[in-house]
From TrEMBL:
One of its GO terms (molecular function) is ATP binding. Residues 4-235 form the ABC transporter domain. It comes from Micromonospora qiuiae. Belongs to the ABC transporter superfamily. It holds the Pfam family ABC_tran. This is ABC transporter ATP-binding protein.
Length: 304
Protein backbone atom coordinates (compact mmCIF):
# COMPACT_ATOMS: atom_id res chain seq x y z
CA UNK A 1 0.00 0.00 0.00
CA UNK A 2 1.18 3.51 -0.75
CA UNK A 3 2.20 5.26 2.47
CA UNK A 4 1.53 8.82 1.37
CA UNK A 5 0.01 10.04 -1.87
CA UNK A 6 -0.77 13.58 -2.93
CA UNK A 7 -2.26 14.84 -6.15
CA UNK A 8 -1.93 18.48 -7.21
CA UNK A 9 -1.89 19.36 -3.51
CA UNK A 10 -2.02 23.11 -2.95
CA UNK A 11 -2.15 25.10 0.27
CA UNK A 12 -2.60 28.86 0.28
CA UNK A 13 -2.65 30.49 3.72
CA UNK A 14 -5.04 33.29 4.70
CA UNK A 15 -2.53 36.05 3.95
CA UNK A 16 -2.14 34.77 0.37
CA UNK A 17 1.12 32.82 0.95
CA UNK A 18 1.26 29.72 -1.25
CA UNK A 19 3.03 27.19 0.95
CA UNK A 20 2.45 24.19 -1.35
CA UNK A 21 1.74 24.32 -5.05
CA UNK A 22 0.43 21.44 -7.19
CA UNK A 23 2.43 18.84 -5.29
CA UNK A 24 2.00 15.34 -6.70
CA UNK A 25 3.97 12.57 -5.05
CA UNK A 26 3.56 8.90 -4.04
CA UNK A 27 5.76 7.33 -1.38
CA UNK A 28 6.10 3.68 -0.37
CA UNK A 29 6.51 2.51 3.26
CA UNK A 30 9.98 2.84 4.79
CA UNK A 31 12.07 5.75 6.07
CA UNK A 32 11.28 8.81 4.02
CA UNK A 33 13.29 12.03 4.14
CA UNK A 34 11.40 15.24 3.44
CA UNK A 35 13.96 17.91 2.69
CA UNK A 36 13.77 21.54 1.72
CA UNK A 37 15.08 24.91 2.87
CA UNK A 38 13.32 26.85 5.63
CA UNK A 39 9.94 27.94 4.30
CA UNK A 40 9.85 25.23 1.59
CA UNK A 41 6.53 23.92 2.91
CA UNK A 42 7.60 20.88 4.96
CA UNK A 43 5.63 21.70 8.13
CA UNK A 44 2.61 22.62 6.03
CA UNK A 45 2.73 19.20 4.35
CA UNK A 46 2.97 17.45 7.72
CA UNK A 47 -0.03 19.38 9.07
CA UNK A 48 -2.02 18.49 5.95
CA UNK A 49 -1.07 14.82 6.42
CA UNK A 50 -2.39 14.98 9.98
CA UNK A 51 -5.63 16.71 8.98
CA UNK A 52 -4.70 19.77 11.07
CA UNK A 53 -4.94 21.89 7.91
CA UNK A 54 -7.31 21.56 4.96
CA UNK A 55 -5.93 21.69 1.40
CA UNK A 56 -6.88 24.67 -0.72
CA UNK A 57 -6.96 22.32 -3.72
CA UNK A 58 -5.90 18.80 -4.64
CA UNK A 59 -5.98 15.47 -2.82
CA UNK A 60 -4.03 13.79 -0.06
CA UNK A 61 -3.97 10.24 1.35
CA UNK A 62 -2.12 8.75 4.31
CA UNK A 63 -2.12 4.97 4.83
CA UNK A 64 -4.98 4.86 2.32
CA UNK A 65 -7.06 7.32 4.40
CA UNK A 66 -8.13 10.87 3.62
CA UNK A 67 -7.01 13.13 6.49
CA UNK A 68 -9.37 15.89 5.35
CA UNK A 69 -12.43 13.67 5.76
CA UNK A 70 -11.22 11.28 8.45
CA UNK A 71 -8.60 13.02 10.60
CA UNK A 72 -9.42 10.95 13.71
CA UNK A 73 -8.65 7.63 11.96
CA UNK A 74 -5.43 9.07 10.55
CA UNK A 75 -4.26 10.35 13.95
CA UNK A 76 -5.00 6.97 15.56
CA UNK A 77 -2.40 5.43 13.21
CA UNK A 78 0.08 8.27 12.96
CA UNK A 79 2.49 9.67 15.56
CA UNK A 80 3.59 13.31 15.34
CA UNK A 81 6.70 14.96 16.74
CA UNK A 82 6.29 18.73 16.25
CA UNK A 83 9.23 20.99 15.45
CA UNK A 84 8.76 23.30 18.44
CA UNK A 85 7.87 22.24 21.93
CA UNK A 86 5.81 23.55 24.77
CA UNK A 87 6.38 20.73 27.25
CA UNK A 88 4.84 21.44 30.68
CA UNK A 89 7.95 21.89 32.88
CA UNK A 90 6.44 20.49 36.09
CA UNK A 91 5.35 17.14 34.68
CA UNK A 92 7.69 14.17 34.54
CA UNK A 93 8.29 12.50 31.18
CA UNK A 94 6.42 9.42 32.43
CA UNK A 95 3.36 11.47 33.41
CA UNK A 96 3.37 13.46 30.19
CA UNK A 97 3.78 10.52 27.83
CA UNK A 98 1.18 8.48 29.77
CA UNK A 99 -1.25 11.39 29.53
CA UNK A 100 -0.73 11.73 25.78
CA UNK A 101 -1.14 7.95 25.44
CA UNK A 102 -4.49 8.28 27.26
CA UNK A 103 -5.46 11.05 24.84
CA UNK A 104 -4.70 8.68 21.96
CA UNK A 105 -7.34 6.36 23.38
CA UNK A 106 -5.23 3.91 25.41
CA UNK A 107 -6.69 2.62 28.72
CA UNK A 108 -4.89 3.91 31.86
CA UNK A 109 -2.71 0.88 32.66
CA UNK A 110 -1.87 0.24 29.00
CA UNK A 111 -0.93 3.92 28.58
CA UNK A 112 1.39 3.70 31.61
CA UNK A 113 3.09 0.56 30.31
CA UNK A 114 3.40 1.89 26.77
CA UNK A 115 4.81 5.21 28.05
CA UNK A 116 7.43 3.37 30.05
CA UNK A 117 8.35 1.28 27.02
CA UNK A 118 8.50 4.30 24.68
CA UNK A 119 10.73 6.16 27.13
CA UNK A 120 13.00 3.13 27.33
CA UNK A 121 13.26 3.04 23.52
CA UNK A 122 14.38 6.66 23.39
CA UNK A 123 16.89 6.18 26.23
CA UNK A 124 15.04 8.09 28.96
CA UNK A 125 13.93 5.23 31.16
CA UNK A 126 16.19 6.13 34.10
CA UNK A 127 15.22 9.79 34.04
CA UNK A 128 11.52 9.30 33.39
CA UNK A 129 10.31 10.47 36.82
CA UNK A 130 12.24 13.77 36.75
CA UNK A 131 10.35 16.98 35.79
CA UNK A 132 10.76 17.77 32.10
CA UNK A 133 11.64 21.42 32.90
CA UNK A 134 15.12 20.27 34.01
CA UNK A 135 15.83 18.28 30.84
CA UNK A 136 18.47 19.20 28.24
CA UNK A 137 17.38 20.03 24.68
CA UNK A 138 18.35 16.52 23.55
CA UNK A 139 16.25 14.95 26.32
CA UNK A 140 13.27 17.16 25.44
CA UNK A 141 13.54 16.06 21.81
CA UNK A 142 13.47 12.46 23.04
CA UNK A 143 10.34 13.09 25.12
CA UNK A 144 8.67 14.48 22.01
CA UNK A 145 9.70 11.36 20.12
CA UNK A 146 8.43 9.07 22.91
CA UNK A 147 4.99 10.71 22.93
CA UNK A 148 4.80 10.21 19.15
CA UNK A 149 5.54 6.50 19.64
CA UNK A 150 3.30 5.80 22.62
CA UNK A 151 0.23 4.52 20.76
CA UNK A 152 2.30 2.26 18.49
CA UNK A 153 1.48 4.07 15.22
CA UNK A 154 2.09 2.76 11.69
CA UNK A 155 3.65 6.04 10.61
CA UNK A 156 5.74 8.59 12.49
CA UNK A 157 5.91 12.19 11.26
CA UNK A 158 9.02 13.84 12.67
CA UNK A 159 9.39 17.59 12.07
CA UNK A 160 13.09 18.54 12.33
CA UNK A 161 13.94 16.03 15.10
CA UNK A 162 17.59 17.18 15.25
CA UNK A 163 16.69 20.83 15.82
CA UNK A 164 18.86 22.52 18.46
CA UNK A 165 21.12 19.48 18.97
CA UNK A 166 24.92 19.49 18.89
CA UNK A 167 26.67 17.20 16.35
CA UNK A 168 26.84 14.24 18.76
CA UNK A 169 23.18 14.74 19.71
CA UNK A 170 22.23 14.88 16.03
CA UNK A 171 24.03 11.63 15.31
CA UNK A 172 22.37 9.93 18.27
CA UNK A 173 18.90 11.16 17.24
CA UNK A 174 19.42 10.05 13.63
CA UNK A 175 20.59 6.62 14.81
CA UNK A 176 17.49 6.35 17.00
CA UNK A 177 15.17 7.32 14.14
CA UNK A 178 16.90 4.78 11.90
CA UNK A 179 16.49 2.06 14.54
CA UNK A 180 12.78 2.85 14.94
CA UNK A 181 12.33 2.69 11.17
CA UNK A 182 14.19 -0.57 10.73
CA UNK A 183 13.45 -2.54 13.92
CA UNK A 184 9.95 -1.44 14.92
CA UNK A 185 8.28 -2.00 11.57
CA UNK A 186 7.08 1.60 11.54
CA UNK A 187 7.33 3.92 8.58
CA UNK A 188 8.92 7.26 9.34
CA UNK A 189 8.74 10.58 7.54
CA UNK A 190 11.62 12.69 8.79
CA UNK A 191 11.70 16.31 7.88
CA UNK A 192 14.91 18.35 7.71
CA UNK A 193 16.50 21.32 5.99
CA UNK A 194 19.79 19.38 6.05
CA UNK A 195 19.98 17.01 3.13
CA UNK A 196 23.27 15.48 4.31
CA UNK A 197 21.54 14.34 7.50
CA UNK A 198 18.49 12.58 6.15
CA UNK A 199 20.43 11.11 3.25
CA UNK A 200 22.23 8.93 5.79
CA UNK A 201 19.14 7.19 7.16
CA UNK A 202 16.43 7.28 4.48
CA UNK A 203 15.26 4.81 1.86
CA UNK A 204 13.38 7.49 -0.06
CA UNK A 205 13.92 11.19 -0.43
CA UNK A 206 11.29 13.80 -1.25
CA UNK A 207 12.79 17.22 -1.94
CA UNK A 208 10.61 20.31 -2.10
CA UNK A 209 11.47 23.90 -2.88
CA UNK A 210 9.15 26.90 -2.66
CA UNK A 211 6.19 24.55 -2.18
CA UNK A 212 6.93 22.59 -5.36
CA UNK A 213 8.28 19.08 -5.79
CA UNK A 214 11.94 19.08 -6.76
CA UNK A 215 12.46 15.34 -6.78
CA UNK A 216 11.12 12.16 -5.18
CA UNK A 217 13.10 8.99 -5.54
CA UNK A 218 14.73 6.05 -3.93
CA UNK A 219 18.10 7.09 -2.46
CA UNK A 220 19.90 4.16 -4.09
CA UNK A 221 18.47 5.10 -7.50
CA UNK A 222 19.54 8.71 -7.02
CA UNK A 223 23.12 7.88 -6.20
CA UNK A 224 23.88 4.83 -8.31
CA UNK A 225 22.44 6.02 -11.60
CA UNK A 226 24.89 8.87 -11.85
CA UNK A 227 28.62 8.86 -11.50
CA UNK A 228 30.62 12.01 -11.45
CA UNK A 229 34.07 13.02 -12.66
CA UNK A 230 36.15 15.01 -10.20
CA UNK A 231 38.70 17.28 -11.88
CA UNK A 232 41.44 19.23 -10.17
CA UNK A 233 43.95 21.55 -11.80
CA UNK A 234 46.84 23.16 -9.87
CA UNK A 235 45.85 26.58 -11.24
CA UNK A 236 43.20 28.05 -13.54
CA UNK A 237 40.18 26.41 -11.85
CA UNK A 238 37.91 29.36 -12.68
CA UNK A 239 38.93 29.39 -16.33
CA UNK A 240 38.38 25.64 -16.62
CA UNK A 241 34.95 25.89 -14.95
CA UNK A 242 33.95 28.59 -17.44
CA UNK A 243 35.25 26.55 -20.38
CA UNK A 244 33.37 23.41 -19.27
CA UNK A 245 30.17 25.40 -18.75
CA UNK A 246 30.60 26.84 -22.26
CA UNK A 247 30.77 23.24 -23.51
CA UNK A 248 27.32 22.70 -21.90
CA UNK A 249 28.68 20.48 -19.15
CA UNK A 250 26.73 21.00 -15.87
CA UNK A 251 29.79 21.71 -13.74
CA UNK A 252 29.71 22.39 -9.98
CA UNK A 253 32.45 23.23 -7.47
CA UNK A 254 33.51 21.57 -4.27
CA UNK A 255 36.53 23.45 -2.89
CA UNK A 256 39.32 23.05 -5.45
CA UNK A 257 37.44 20.27 -7.25
CA UNK A 258 35.22 20.66 -10.29
CA UNK A 259 32.51 18.00 -10.51
CA UNK A 260 31.02 16.98 -13.83
CA UNK A 261 28.35 14.27 -14.19
CA UNK A 262 29.66 11.41 -16.31
CA UNK A 263 27.33 11.06 -19.30
CA UNK A 264 29.55 8.79 -21.43
CA UNK A 265 33.16 8.35 -22.53
CA UNK A 266 32.84 11.67 -24.40
CA UNK A 267 32.74 13.53 -21.06
CA UNK A 268 36.36 12.46 -20.35
CA UNK A 269 37.44 13.66 -23.80
CA UNK A 270 35.73 17.03 -23.42
CA UNK A 271 37.39 17.65 -20.04
CA UNK A 272 40.84 16.55 -21.23
CA UNK A 273 40.40 18.69 -24.37
CA UNK A 274 39.49 21.77 -22.30
CA UNK A 275 42.47 21.25 -19.95
CA UNK A 276 44.84 20.90 -22.93
CA UNK A 277 43.34 23.88 -24.74
CA UNK A 278 43.82 26.14 -21.69
CA UNK A 279 47.24 24.56 -21.08
CA UNK A 280 46.50 23.90 -17.41
CA UNK A 281 48.44 21.53 -15.10
CA UNK A 282 46.03 18.62 -14.48
CA UNK A 283 46.37 17.40 -10.91
CA UNK A 284 43.68 14.73 -10.92
CA UNK A 285 40.77 13.38 -12.93
CA UNK A 286 38.83 10.54 -11.37
CA UNK A 287 35.44 8.98 -11.29
CA UNK A 288 33.37 8.70 -8.16
CA UNK A 289 29.86 8.12 -7.02
CA UNK A 290 27.54 11.06 -6.47
CA UNK A 291 26.40 12.01 -3.03
CA UNK A 292 22.78 13.03 -3.08
CA UNK A 293 23.66 16.57 -1.98
CA UNK A 294 25.73 17.03 -5.13
CA UNK A 295 22.75 16.23 -7.34
CA UNK A 296 20.87 19.13 -5.81
CA UNK A 297 23.85 21.49 -5.77
CA UNK A 298 24.30 20.82 -9.48
CA UNK A 299 20.63 21.45 -10.10
CA UNK A 300 20.73 24.72 -8.17
CA UNK A 301 23.85 25.96 -9.94
CA UNK A 302 22.44 25.09 -13.35
CA UNK A 303 19.25 27.01 -12.43
CA UNK A 304 21.18 30.07 -11.23
N1 LIG B 1 -0.11 29.95 9.48
C1 LIG B 1 0.49 30.53 8.45
N2 LIG B 1 0.00 31.65 7.88
C2 LIG B 1 0.60 32.24 6.81
N3 LIG B 1 1.74 31.77 6.24
C3 LIG B 1 2.29 30.65 6.76
C4 LIG B 1 1.70 29.99 7.90
N4 LIG B 1 2.47 28.89 8.20
C5 LIG B 1 3.49 28.90 7.29
N5 LIG B 1 3.37 29.94 6.44
C6 LIG B 1 4.27 30.25 5.30
O1 LIG B 1 4.20 29.15 4.40
C7 LIG B 1 5.49 28.86 3.85
C8 LIG B 1 5.88 27.44 4.16
O2 LIG B 1 6.07 27.32 5.58
P1 LIG B 1 6.39 25.94 6.31
O3 LIG B 1 6.44 26.21 7.78
O4 LIG B 1 5.48 24.89 5.82
O5 LIG B 1 7.86 25.66 5.76
P2 LIG B 1 8.99 24.68 6.30
O6 LIG B 1 9.60 24.06 5.10
O7 LIG B 1 8.43 23.77 7.32
O8 LIG B 1 10.02 25.67 6.95
P3 LIG B 1 10.57 25.72 8.46
O9 LIG B 1 11.50 24.59 8.60
O10 LIG B 1 11.22 27.07 8.52
O11 LIG B 1 9.33 25.60 9.34
C9 LIG B 1 6.42 29.92 4.43
O12 LIG B 1 6.51 30.98 3.52
C10 LIG B 1 5.72 30.36 5.69
O13 LIG B 1 6.06 31.69 6.01
Amino acid sequence: MTLIATESLTKVYGGGVTALSELTVAVEPGIVGLVGANGAGKSTLIKLLLGLLTPTAGRIQVLGLDPTADAASVRARVGYMPEHDCLPPDLSAAELVTHLGRMSGLPRTVARERASEALRHVGLHEERHRPVGGYSTGMKQRVKLAQALVHDPDLLLLDEPTNGLDPAGRDAMLALVHRIGTEFGMSVLVCSHLLGEVERICDTLVAIDGGRLLRADNIAAMTSATDVLAVEVSEGTEALAARLAALDLPVSREGQLLLVPLADQGTYDLILGAVAELDLPLHRLDQRRHRVAELFARRESSHA
